[in-house]
């Protein structure tokens, strides 16, 4: 994967256009982020094929520290499928919906009131591919928009 160190917390100066890195939080290949509507929690998919020693990717939950702008890891979960590339919070703020690009699947994970990841409530594995088998031998979901 890439050479990123993780998630970068930055300050943006709208007058000058300057972007300054304040904090770097180590994370395994975070590729897409979602922030809850109250700006208390951040969720990042870990786009990998193996996560925490198991096949499949992962998702990480963080608490946003308002005073410093930094984030603190709360917990992590498998996404069951490989290469998660997108995460979205449902409109009620109770579930994460995640697409596993390489795994050809979608997973739903319950959110706890304290922002932590709860149990997996649903998992759908798609079968089949494109008419162009050289390019797309199986399903590759890219995103979920609720």
What is the count of β-strands? 12
Q: Main β-sheet: number of strands, strand sense, barrel status? A: 4 strands, antiparallel
**Helix content class:** under 10%
Shape estimate: globular
Low-confidence stretches: none
Strand content: over 45%
| Average pLDDT reading | 90
What is the CA-CA span between the terminal residues? 29 Å
Radius of gyration: 16 Å
Strand adjacency order, main sheet: 3-4-7-8
**How many distinct helices?**
0
Structural class: mainly beta
Summarize the helix and strand pattern as letters. Answer: EEEEEEEEEEEE
Descriptive notes:
The chain is an all-beta fold and 146 residues long. Helix content is 0%, strand content 51%. Strand 10 and strand 11 form a beta hairpin. The model has no long low-confidence stretch (mean pLDDT 90).
Q: Quick recap of the structure?
A:
This protein is an all-beta fold and 146 residues long. It is 0% helix and 51% strand.
Which helices and strands, and how do they pair?
Blueprint: E1 6-12, E2 19-26, E3 30-35, E4 41-46, E5 50-51, E6 54-55, E7 58-64, E8 71-78, E9 84-89, E10 95-100, E11 105-111, E12 117-125
Antiparallel strand pairs: 1-2, 3-4, 4-7, 5-6, 7-8, 9-10, 10-11, 11-12
């Amino acid at each position: 994967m890439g050479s990123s160190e993780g998630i970068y917390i930055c300050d943006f100066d709208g007058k000058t256009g300057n972007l300054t890195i304040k904090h770097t939080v180590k994370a395994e290949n975070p590729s897409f982020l979602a922030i809850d509507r109250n700006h208390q929690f951040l969720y990042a998919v870990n786009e990998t094929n193996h996560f925490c020693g198991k096949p499949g990717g992962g998702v990480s939950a963080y608490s946003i520290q308002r005073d410093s702008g930094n984030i603190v890891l709360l917990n992590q979960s498998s996404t069951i499928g490989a290469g998660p590339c997108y995460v979205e919070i449902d409109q009620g703020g109770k579930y994460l919906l995640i697409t596993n690009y390489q795994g050809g699947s979608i997973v739903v994970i319950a959110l706890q009131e304290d922002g932590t990841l709860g149990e997996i409530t649903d998992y759908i594995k798609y079968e089949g591919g494109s008419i162009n088998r050289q390019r797309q031998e199986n399903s590759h979901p890219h995103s979920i928009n609720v």
